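discrete fold record:
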Amino acid sequence: MWDQLQKTLRGLPDIAWNFLLAGIAITSGLTINWILTLIVNYHTKYQSGFTWFRSAIHRLGKSVRVFLPLFVLDQVLPLMQLSTRYYYNLNKTTGIFLILSFAFILIGIVKIFEDYVVTTYDLKKENNLKERKIRTQLQFIRKFVVFLIVVLTICAVLLSFDNLRRLGAGLLTGVGVGGVIVGFAAQRSLGNLLAGFQIAFTQPIRIDDVLVVEGEWGRVEEITLTYVVLNIWDERRLILPINYFIEKPFQNWTRKTGDILGTVFIYLDYTAPVEEIRTEFTRLVNTTELWDKRVQVLQVTNTTENIIELRALMSASSSSRAFDLRCYIRENLVAFIQKNYPDSLPRTRAIING
């Protein structure tokens, strides 16, 4: 039976033989991919959260589904009955698509690692300084590595053509002059790129840091190779070149820790009972979860000819909680004074001589 099959296959026309080999190659690649998918799905069936297998299916599934059939087809190409010209063209086309699909696999592997880091270092934690540090470096490194893979892939495709290799060799003599011209033309862009490296590793800012920049309060939403996106409190986006954070001063409220002090100023008449107001302030901060139990002080910090200035100082674990805490204390202290000591509110005294 096997001998009969061999005779039948030898008697096939060249085009039928070639289509048969191509069909076997593509089917074999898809079958291997299907078997691998079944194995991975079996291992992730009863697991929740992040798993390497689940991330691999999500990030590599489509790329591997293209790469495996192409790889098997590339292996069987020498067995096909093709003329030299057709063999060269098919081999070159298959090689280019292999390079492209392999590049997508490499990008997928980078994203698998990113999934792991994102899951492990969750920004939703209360004290997330370490998480923000890792995520900032990750975002910059991921974009740089993907950019590098794309550039190397384009180079590999171009260099697979003999005439382009010769053209590249001829252009090397002009690299010196061209490099100087490009350097001057792209000086600002290169400065931004180098600033991006500096920020990624020295980290004056990190993802989710709270900044005050150009008079705007917001959180760092994204750090790219050339610019930074600041998510302002009212959901506007402030876009700044990345070298701004190297060259100009700005406020970072979460550089070392998210802990921050908040202040409330209240202006009252000299008859205001400071001790009673201090007691109420102490009661208020002790009855709210917004206070982190580190600092709570109420003092008279200034006086004028008409009023005294009371400053309530309190601490919170983050800038957003500090803002809410300040509003809470301000509202309740004013209500307390209005209800119990209305005569202590600022007043203007006048003496009228009859």
